[in-house]
């Protein structure tokens, strides 16, 4: 994975002013695959995202914005890219940043709303129905998306995140054999247009907000061409340590919402536990790669993604495949 740009608050402010001359002092949000900052553009709350070219090329960033525009045109509430003062949505900000790779900046509106709360009354049928229905709408719109020849997101085996790249992971790393086995299984599947296309890639709690009975989606940085059921696994992965009965219930509710829009992929949902395990191995491999190259930061207050979030911890990643498969089949469209 590419290095995260080393950005100071002064750097971020200079870059934010490419969008608005009176942009206010940025507030660092986190460093993960990108360096992300909260900014105000003339009183408008926004997000500034700085991306190393080692992580995403300019063409890949343009393709991301094209996909977000497409689903926005289809009626989903998503964070589309904002134009800079020069009329660009992807800006080469390399001159502002001390980074060995080229650095690109983009800005997005910052939605009002709230994240759902773990261990609260949020964790009930209405949330999962809404979540599943919104994802179903996203996948239905994805089927009509035509990627351009010049700007195209990769297929998942070619993507460092979705493909769970392990080039920087020690050969004896515990997660590596499982990762290799699951990648081989998924890679042997022949793609089906009804169940394969552009996915969000990280449609989990931190990347959407609840507002007035709807979901507002953002951070499409991990979007790629993948099995649609991968999106479902990434969304529900955080509940992997819930009881067997709860996991089956959550997925059942999610699929009820999803099936209100489109047919789910019951063939691969029958191996949902393997998708959860692959998502877990991705997290393990990514953490190992980051540890292997970790160096002192520039004092900008960065924090590891997900740290201190209060989410359930890592543990047993198994899921009840028979129950999940039956839940999907019971909810097939008629």
Short characterization:
By secondary structure, the chain is of the alpha+beta class.
CATH topology of the largest domain: Aminoglycoside 3'-phosphotransferase, Chain: A, domain 2
| Topology, number of strands | 10
Q: Give the rounded overall mean pLDDT.
A: 86
**Number of self-contained structural domains:** 2
Structural class: alpha+beta
Describe the overall structure.
It is built from nine helices and ten strands. The protein has 334 residues and is α+β, with helices and mostly antiparallel strands. It folds into two domains: 1-110, Phosphorylase Kinase, domain 1; 112-297 and 312-334, Alpha-Beta Complex (Aminoglycoside 3'-phosphotransferase, Chain: A, domain 2), CATH 3.90.1200.10. The strands form three sheets. Strands 1-2-3-6-5 form a five-stranded antiparallel beta sheet, covered by helices on one side. It has a three-stranded mixed beta sheet with strand order 4-9-8. It is globular and about 50 Å long. It starts with 8 loop residues before the first helix and ends with a helix. The model is unreliable at 295-329 (pLDDT under 50).
């Amino acid at each position: 994975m590419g290095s995260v740009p080393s950005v100071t608050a002064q750097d971020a402010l200079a870059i934010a002013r490419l969008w608005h001359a009176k942009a206010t002092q940025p507030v660092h949000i986190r460093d993960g695959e990108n360096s992300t900052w909260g900014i105000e553009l003339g009183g408008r709350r926004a997000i500034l995202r700085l991306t190393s070219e080692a992580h995403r090329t300019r063409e890949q960033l343009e393709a991301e914005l094209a996909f977000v525009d497409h689903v926005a045109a289809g009626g989903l509430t998503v964070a589309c890219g904002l134009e800079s003062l020069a009329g660009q949505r992807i800006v080469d900000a390399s001159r502002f940043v001390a980074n060995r790779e080229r650095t690109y900046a983009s800005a997005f509106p910052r939605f009002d709303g709230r994240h759902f709360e773990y261990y609260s009354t949020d964790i009930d049928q209405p949330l999962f129905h809404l979540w599943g229905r919104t994802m179903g709408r996203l996948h239905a719109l994805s089927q009509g998306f035509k990627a351009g020849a010049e700007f195209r997101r990769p297929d998942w085996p070619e993507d460092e995140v979705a493909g769970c790249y392990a080039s920087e992971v020690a050969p004896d790393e515990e997660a590596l054999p499982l990762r290799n086995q699951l990648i081989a299984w998924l890679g042997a599947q022949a793609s089906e247009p009804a169940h394969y296309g552009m996915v969000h890639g990280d449609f989990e709690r931190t990347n959407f907000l609840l507002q007035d009975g709807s979901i507002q989606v953002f951070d499409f940085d991990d979007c790629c061409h993948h099995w649609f059921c991968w999106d479902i696994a990434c969304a529900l992965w955080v509940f992997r340590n819930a009881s067997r009965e709860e996991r089956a219930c959550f997925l059942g509710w999610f699929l009820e919402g999803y099936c209100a829009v489109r047919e789910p992929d019951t063939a691969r949902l029958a191996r949902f536990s393997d998708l959860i395990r692959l998502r877990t191995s991705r997290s393990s491999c990514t953490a190992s790669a980051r540890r292997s190259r970790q160096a002192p930061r520039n004092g900008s207050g960065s924090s590891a993604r997900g740290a201190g979030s209060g989410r359930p911890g890592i543990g047993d990643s198994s899921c009840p495949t028979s129950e999940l498969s039956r839940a999907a089949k019971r909810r097939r469209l008629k």
